[in-house]
């Protein structure tokens, strides 16, 4: 599908009928912002190529994109960089001994404009995740390409680091794979926290409802186009809540700059912006894809 056609579809989707939404303003504490900041840095680290070949090494980011990660005692346990029929699925599993957590971080697309232009709108059966669920065929396939190795590594890490919190995170395409991967890991019996940034819609209403019930932390930024894709007109839905950054690019984000948007398929927040932006996709508290 050509990019020009995509813009038209997104504009049409903005006016699609959606479930009523409730806006809860200024409902973000300093501790919540601190958590989003930390996991934005972990998501940013997945873009740094050195972290994709670093077993046994600390997680680092050239360009000061992840200072809080670098200040902790971290060890990369394994990395994945799989080229498959659905694109590249890349990232790492690492342990943070300072904060006592195991982190699975997925990298976003290396070329966001090309990725948007090439994005298809196909749903496929995902009943293994939840009853009645359908998922974007590419996002589901990207997770399945690495599912066995990641699940095995998480199991090993949980044995070695008993009591550590499991966190799954990612930006953009990485956020979509993170959402599906986190759902599969939860179904396998793991308690975890999910943080995504600029995540596109990953499946149908049943999957969005399941994600909402499981609990997730989904952040959007101003008029970022990616969370508006694939369009609702094609059967895709977003989970709730949405943490919406209301400030522009390269602006320090404070607690008063984030609004909590409550409601599956809300038309407030990011979805309520009339003009879409690719540039807004790169700024999530930090220059989240700066390493790329």
Explained architecture:
Residues 11-75 form the Mono-/di-acylglycerol lipase N-terminal domain. Residues 1-18 form the signal peptide. This is Lipase. It comes from Penicillium atrosanguineum. The chain is of the alpha/beta class and 292 residues long. The chain has a single domain, classed as Alpha/Beta hydrolase fold, catalytic domain (Rossmann fold), CATH 3.40.50. Helices cover 29% and strands 23% of the residues. It has a nine-stranded mixed β-sheet, with helices on both faces. Strands 5-6 form a two-stranded antiparallel sheet. The protein is globular. The model is unreliable at 1-26 (pLDDT under 50).
Q: Can you summarize this structure?
A:
By secondary structure, the protein is α/β, with parallel strands linked by helices.
Features:
292 residues; alpha/beta; Rossmann fold; nine-stranded mixed sheet; two-stranded antiparallel ribbon; globular; disordered N terminus
Query: How many helical elements?
Result: 8
Straight-line distance between termini: 25 Å
Count of DSSP strands:
13
Query: Which regions contain 5 or more consecutive residues with pLDDT less than 50?
Result: 1-26
Strand content: 15-25%
In this structure, how is the largest beta sheet organized?
Answer: 9 strands, mixed
- Average predicted local confidence, pLDDT: 90
Domain Fungal lipase-type: 103-233
InterPro entries: AB_hydrolase_fold, AB_hydrolase_lip/est, Fungal_lipase-type, Mono/diacylglycerol_lipase_N
Domain Mono-/di-acylglycerol lipase N-terminal: 11-75
Protein name: Lipase
